[in-house]
Amino acid sequence: MALTYPLRTAARLTGLSPEVLRAWERRYAVVIPQRTPGGTRRYTAADLERLRMVKAAVDAGHRIGQVASLDAVALRSLVEPHAAPPPGKLDEVLQALDALDGAEAQRLLALQLSALGPVRFAIDFACPLVREIGERWVDNRLSIPSEHLATGVLRSMLGSALQPTSVSLLGPRIVFSTPSGERHELGLLMAALTALGGGGNPLYLGAEVPVEDLLAAVDLAGAAALAIGVVNLPKAQIERNLAALRGGLAADVALWVGGAGAANAVLPEGVEPISSLEQLEQRVALLVATDPQGR
């Protein structure tokens, strides 16, 4: 059964107030949410994506009456130029990395973090930057020192932004880590930052933590979820680790897995794949809604 989200969570994830959501439904039928037997609104992930695009179009200067009836393709053509990070900003960071100017790269990243805030920085800037760095590495357009510098600067920047807030400290605890043998952690850091912005209370343990230690950490922290990142681990090892983790966790503790390595693995029952930071943001918001005071 597909996940659905209550009105309060939909408002948080779309940036629209409950009053605007109701008005757009009533006047323009932007989305028609499902209803529980008691009449409570429930929004699907597709509803949230459409609402985000409509809001982006309105924020860009289009009238709600003009965009409310547009289909997804037409909406995307309006909002994608505004959603993508400015190419010049990415290029500036990449130029600094090519010149091995770590101080300038860090300065430029700090400006984007300040302008966008932690969650949007992770989703809209850091993620495209990491993807571009990876493509340049594969094509031999980025030197080994520049790639190592990029990893170090981004790790430092993302880690420094991962600071608890008064809101997050009240949220459900979510443990983030990679299993033994998996050293890639930039995606995991971005995921933890996204969870922080979504109202979760992330406990970031970093890379290469053995299964038994992860289980002990989840238990000690009273976590509501364990988020695992896998990139280069062999498929069989990913499956063994996830089976051991799911078998060792309490039934009410969610187990999420993301990263390139998860795409081809056969996931055990009770393990939820997370394919994007946007999906993680939605999943954390649902966890907050069902466990608003944390554990």
Can you tell me about this structure?
The protein is α/β, with parallel strands linked by helices. The protein folds into three domains: 79 residues, Multidrug-efflux Transporter Regulator, Chain: A, Domain 2 (Orthogonal Bundle), CATH 1.10.1660.10; 75 residues, Methionine synthase domain (Methyltransferase, Methionine Synthase (B12-binding Domains), Chain A, domain 1), CATH 1.10.1240.10; 123 residues, Cobalamin-binding domain (Rossmann fold, 3-Layer(aba) Sandwich). The chain has 13 helices and eight strands. It has a five-stranded parallel beta sheet with strand order 5-4-6-7-8, with helices on both faces. It has a three-stranded antiparallel beta sheet with strand order 1-3-2. Strand 4, helix 10 and strand 5 form a beta-alpha-beta unit. It is globular and about 55 Å long.
